[in-house]
Amino acid sequence: MRYGTKDVLDGVSFTARHGEVLALLGPNGAGKSTTIEILEGFRMRSAGEVRVLGVDPGRGDEHWRARLGVVLQSWRDHGKWRVRELLAHLGSFYSAYSTDRIRRPWDVDDLLATVGLTEQARQRVSRLSGGQRRRLDVAVGIVGRPELLFLDEPTVGFDPAARREFHDLMHRLADLDDTTILLTTHDLDEAEKLADRILILSGGRIIADGSADELSRRVAGEAEVRWTQGGGRFVHATADATRFVHDLFKQYGDGIGELEVRRASLEDTYMTLVYEQESGGRGDAAAHALEGKNG
Ligand SMILES: Nc1ncnc2c1ncn2[C@@H]1O[C@H](COP(=O)(O)OP(=O)(O)OP(=O)(O)O)[C@@H](O)[C@H]1O
């Protein structure tokens, strides 16, 4: 993707498998929204090849669009509508695209309960709180029972309970309905909890692609083992924590207390990779190492 003379995406290449949850991470301005907008068919790429549900998004028709769900970063229309009316209205668009396998749209009362807006059903959209508004955005995105769902920073403004409910909903969509989900987030904890696979975009390129575990193991390498023994506290860094703990118990048995194994968090991994890329250092090398291991 090129804006004017500036390349903002370069060589971005990935495949999402059916029913997979993918999180797109990266610093501000990395190109996450641009990537998602190209896949949604909202923005025409300058070059390259894209297929979404088998179709080039630049040429997607209404039938194709009805199979997608989109939750945008900020969506501030329809303030005068009441919540239930708005969902019923938007849902009615999808009934023509109902199939034997996927009944469209989602029953409105079921959907309201699912996103936790039953009590607000008769309220005007303009009177909702920020978090309730975001729940409505999610409801709008899934009312057509999409096969593929795009979410751009879905949980900004959610309280911890709403965040957890949202994570449960995403798991349900992916596990029960086989929905493929692509989301962007700046919340690394969220990415770790939700995503089967994480893509890190930095400077318009994908610098890492793998599960949270794979990324932390391959990049940071070492885990930290802590324990107490004979009144002392110990810390040891090792690439093979399982074997180390096994040997530790073999040697000291019941003498070991307060055992703790800490892998590098996704945040550690993310910071390392992005720093390497931004400093023009080993980012590419790390990405290639990952690609090689992903095989
Ligand atoms: N319409 C546009 N015209 C010119 N440049 C643009 C346009 N839209 C985005 N850009 C530039 O493209 C780059 C990628 O922007 P994008 O919004 O995709 O990043 P992002 O990763 O989603 O960032 P954020 O985390 O801040 O939402 C940025 O440098 C931005 O300034």
UniProtKB/TrEMBL annotation:
Domain of life according to the entry: Bacteria
Gene3D superfamilies, alphabetized: P-loop containing nucleotide triphosphate hydrolases (3.40.50.300)
Keyword Transport: yes
Domain ABC transporter, first and last residues per copy: 1-228
Membrane topology of the entry: Peripheral membrane protein
Record has ATP-binding as a keyword: yes
InterPro entries in UniProt: AAA+_ATPase (IPR003593), ABC_transporter-like_ATP-bd (IPR003439), ABC_transporter-like_CS (IPR017871), ABC_transporter_ATP-binding (IPR050763), P-loop_NTPase (IPR027417)
Keywords: Antibiotic resistance, ATP-binding, Nucleotide-binding, Transport
Gene Ontology MF terms: ATP binding
Subcellular location: Cell membrane
Pfam families registered for this protein in UniProt: ABC_tran
Major localization listed first in the record, in broad terms: membrane
Protein name: ABC transporter ATP-binding protein
